[in-house]
Amino acid sequence: MAEKQYVIFKLCGEEYGVAIQHVQEITEHKRATTVPNVPKFIEGIINLRGNITPIISLKKKFNLQEGEIQESNRIIIINIADKQVGFIVDDASQVLTMDEKQIENPPELLTGIDRQYIIGIGKVEEKIIILLDLEKILTEKEKNEIKNM
């Protein structure tokens, strides 16, 4: 049985996971500099060790209830189209190893673009963890906008 490791993070009290091999790093939340005329879910840009990094609010992208930024907020850094991109999450709590038996395919009721980035549903004890491919969250047009920032 193949096991995979996932970085587990929270949004609005729900748990999500992203494959650890896609995560470059997790950093504390930093206030982003606003960039005009970008999609609403882009919070802005930060300077992360000399790299200008666009920051995306997953809450805005998923149309979830937004709240105040807390000390527990984190930014998960991944690479999309050869550009470092950060995703703001409520908390990035742990790395979890899951066996293939613990992961089911996304439910049939998910259709369209949502199904592209939800790669599975993890079941750990009584918890359900929605497994995401953060690279597929953005459309090609959105990736190009970010690449050109």
Automatic annotation (TrEMBL):
Protein name: Chemotaxis protein CheW
Residues annotated as transmembrane: none
InterPro entries: CheW (IPR039315), CheW-like_dom_sf (IPR036061), CheW-lke_dom (IPR002545)
A single BP term in Gene Ontology: chemotaxis
Places the protein is found: Cytoplasm
Gene name per UniProt: cheW1
Location (main, coarse): cytoplasm
Residue ranges constituting the CheW-like domain according to the UniProt record: 3-143
Matching Pfam families: CheW (PF01584)
GO CC list: cytosol
Keywords: Chemotaxis, Cytoplasm
